[in-house]
Amino acid sequence: MAHRYTQPDLMELRSDDLETQELTLNVGPQHPSTHGVLRLVAVTDGEIIKSLEPHIGFLHRGMEKNSEGREYRQLIPLWDRNDYLASMHMDYMTTSAVEALMDLEVPRRAEYIRVIMLELQRIASHLFWFASFALDSGAVTPLFYALKEREKIIDLFEMASGARLLYNYIRPGGVRADITPAFMEKLSKFIREFPRYLDECEQLYTGNAIFINRARDVGVLTREAAINLGVSGPVLRGSGVAWDLRKDEPYSIYPEFKFDIPVGERGDVLDRYEVRFYEMRMATEIVRQAMEGLPEGDYVAKVPPSPKTKAGEVYVRQEAARGELGCYLVSDGGRKPWRFHVRPASYLNLGALDTMCRGYLFADLIIILGSIDIVLGDVDK
Amino acid sequence: MIIDSATIWEACRDLLMAWGLGYSAAQVIILLLAFLVVAVFAIILVLALVLLERRLIGWIQLRPGPNRVGGRTGWLQTVADALKLLYKEDIVPLNADRPTYFAAPYAVFMPVLLMLVVLPFGVAIINGSYRYFVVSDLNIAVLYILAMGSVELIGVIMAGWGSGNKYALIGAMRAVAQLISYEVPLVLALVSVVLFAGSMSLVDIVHRQSSTWAIFPLFPAFVIFFITGVAETNRCPFDLLEAESEVVAGFHTEYSGMRFALFFLAEYLAVWVMAALIVVFFFGGWKGPMFLGEGGLWFTSFFWFMAKSFFFVWCFIWFRGTFPRIRVDQLMVFSWKVLLPLAVVQVMIVGWGITYRNPWFSANVIPRVTVVEAHSGMVGGFDYMTTPETLRHLTTPELVAFGWSVLGAIVVIVLLGAMLYRTILGFRPSREFQREIELKNMRLEDAKGSE
Amino acid sequence: MNQVLDQKDFSELFSESLKFEYEYDPATQILRLDAAHLPELFALLANDERLAMGYLRDLTAKEQPEGEFHVVYNWASIEHHHTLMAVAKVPGSLDVPSATQYWESANWMEREAWDMFGIRFAGHPDLRRIYLEETVSFFPLRKSFKVSPVQNVRDLGGSEREIAKAKAKAAKEAKEPAGDR
């Protein structure tokens, strides 16, 4: 197995009379592999990272302030833009927060369509993560294999919603448009073929000794640290915590489906990688079950054009592609939110980067950052 | 048995002399011609290689690759790219160390081109004697190739330093560390080949593999040489110095236009040269498959040489299409802790085999080809010590060659001296640093003024 | 709306452990208290085996119509599958005890609350703005902050030159008022 470079190991090699100096290194905000505008300031001792501070906010758009002046239906396309790689999850976040304060009966068909869309979005987001992660570790080819599959999902979304990236599809009461038989046909073809293509992606990359050497025992986040740092999603499960909101705090109709939660053992980069791949397979399974059980009926409930909510406060959360996507909505009983706060998963996961990187080499930084799967638009709100 | 063997150029020279030209004139004309042919060949080869790589990588990556310029095959794409690069603005960063910056592309490109001088492309049997397709059949060709490979390194450092860019400098430093550590197992792998063949001349090494290709007795050496070859040409998975996710584009980050194209040219040419060297050292050079016999025609030898070398080029491209990048410290660990011991053991085994006449290493010993008329060419003229006495006996072309090499040595010394001066004595703070000093001075002046 | 698998009624637990005034609604799992009493609550939540709120999932603030601030905490217990929301009333001095010594996840979230609302968290190791520049003088999520063109360039963290330019412009406008004539 790979050598593990922890701080004490290399410190022993260094004799005391050698004068060493800590070096502050700056990465970004303009750098090809910081996934957007992220600035990292690392204090290194030789090649070893002693501490690391992410500087964020370069993409801050004041989304929460903007939300306060807008009606609920306007919030959906606004927050679409927050995590542009998983727009369906953002749609569902806004929608579920509003629905929680509305006493709405959502038709079962709409719930099934939502689950299909959410799980497809999870696959699409994880595929994009795989593409960029492989690119970070220096392999270009997986990008094309992953994006080829993502393209099929995007085509499906386009058939359903008319948009390819920012869907504005899930809305209070149901979804915007019903899915068609042609969509179902294409979807069943995709679900049939996708596991094979996923195997192809894994064959291309997972077993590669160079990759295993780089990812195994790198960026370890222990179970306790992961919980204490508030990370969520695949990062938390990679650290060995079986915590998936679809099972542990279920929402929508997820209790009706049978699926497993992958959990890592060591909490390193490779575990996070494998958790995401397993999640893609499980998401395919959920979509298959949802397709089989898809009932007939309405796809949207009767909702006034500009819905009013009752006064109150609620914190709703869902298992989005990157982790726990929470939304804290305070309403004064009007058509606009009094306070609309979003808890993006990337934000807290990025906060754990310092803990993950300490004691590892500077060259590991990029691959560890890639394994968290951040979207800077999501982090910066 | 064929006793007379020489390069094809020497045969042509004899032909010119038979037409009535003097020896010196014929020699100069022929050597210039030879180098010109090889250089043009190299350029065309690189154009083809770039296209090949892009098409093959495209095929691996589920996309068509270049498919517009010159029809669906896109065969004119690299020509168009070269023309475009020629017209591009030549950007020089303000921070650049200008002489070093300008000289670096040539310092990288020329050594690779010069490596072609000793590569035997094939053989023709004319009037019962071997005529090799090689500019010069150097008897120290292996050393020459290693030396040229190291000179290339200087160009890389010059580019990294001269750009005045942190990423370029880090890329260059990585290149130095990587190339130096991979040169050691590479040389040791070659030592076993040289022991096996009993000669450093590439022509002799190919001849030695008449009945068995060297890969069979020297398989570990082949593996070592192949891996280090990939590392020496900075190809994936060892392309750390141009890892775009870490150091943007490495040492040529700041280069644009034709200077960038020269780096590009050098990289691809080096890939082919490395593939050709693998063929020469381990796969019987121009010789076809053993069951086909020697293959007497000149174009079959040329065909086999090119076919085999392109197979290894394909392997290089294949690696790039499928491998992730190795981490910088694992790269070093791999070289020093895996490849180097393996190479040392291999050298010991080959040495033992030769000393004790192990049939595996010495069963197919053939009498060495007697080189009747070698070592009188431009580069070959320096196999004896150059003293004032011998200088007086030199022919004109040999004197020109001597002067040329002295000039070259002076240029290299001057460049190195300039770099050292820049590094140690002529340290220039970066622009930000300068600005900081200026600001500090301004603040001091302000404070004085307020008093 | 999420259903919590094993939601318990903490009324008894709180009444025996918390020695200050609070409001607890078992239906919504919202605990309302004064921010001054937060350290006692933190200690209870983190240390009590029956609660074991190891996962601080969200921390934010809100402004009430009458102008007072609330800090809102959301906990979950990964072992016991129950949750709790605490709404703490912030005193006029805007000082709130920090939760970072119990939950590291509070670090960035408290910085965000400081950045957006100007609520100071006493005991926070590194309370700086997280999204905006340090030079910014406003707190955007307060209701008093209106979304309008920002007048002062310095508030946006502008350079010295831009500030000088803006000053010159203001001086010029002061000299000849741009009225319709």
What does this structure look like?
- The complex is a heterotrimer of chains A (381), B (451) and C (181).
- Chain A contains 16 helices and eight strands.
- Chain A is α+β, with helices and mostly antiparallel strands and 381 residues long.
- Chain A has a three-stranded antiparallel β-sheet with strand order 1-2-3. Chain A has a three-stranded antiparallel β-sheet with strand order 6-7-8.
- The N terminus of chain A is likely disordered.
- Chain B is mainly alpha-helical.
- Chain B has two domains: 278 residues, no CATH class; 62 residues, no CATH class.
- Helix content of chain B is 65%, strand content 2%.
- Chain B has 16 helices and three strands.
- Chain B has a three-stranded mixed β-sheet.
- By secondary structure, chain C is an alpha/beta fold.
- Chain C has a domain of 120 residues: NADH:ubiquinone oxidoreductase Nqo5 subunit (Beta Polymerase, domain 2).
- Chain C is 25% helix and 22% strand.
- A five-stranded mixed β-sheet of chain C has the order 1-2-5-4-3.
- Chain C is elongated.
- The model of chain C has no long low-confidence stretch (mean pLDDT 83).
- At the A-C interface, helix 2, helix 4, helix 9, strand 6 and strand 7 of A face strand 3, strand 4, strand 5 and helix 3 of C.
Give the percentage of residues in beta strands of chain C. Answer: 15-25%
**How confident overall, as mean pLDDT of chain A?**
85
CATH class of the domain at 11-130 in chain C: Alpha Beta
Biggest pleated sheet of chain A: 3 strands, antiparallel
- The number of helical elements of chain C comes to 4
| Net shape of chain C | elongated
| Broad structural category of chain A | alpha+beta
In what order do the strands lie side by side in the largest sheet of chain C?
1-2-5-4-3
Q: How would you sum up the major sheet of chain C?
A: 5 strands, mixed
Strand content of chain A: 5-15%
Please name the CATH architecture of the domain at 11-130 in chain C. 2-Layer Sandwich
Oligomeric category: heterotrimer
Low-confidence stretches of chain C: none
Rounded to an integer in angstroms, the radius of gyration calculated over CA atoms of chain A is 22 Å
If classified by CATH, what would the architecture of the largest domain in chain A be? Orthogonal Bundle
Roughly what percent helix of chain A? Answer: 40-55%
> Could you give the count of β-strands of chain A?
8
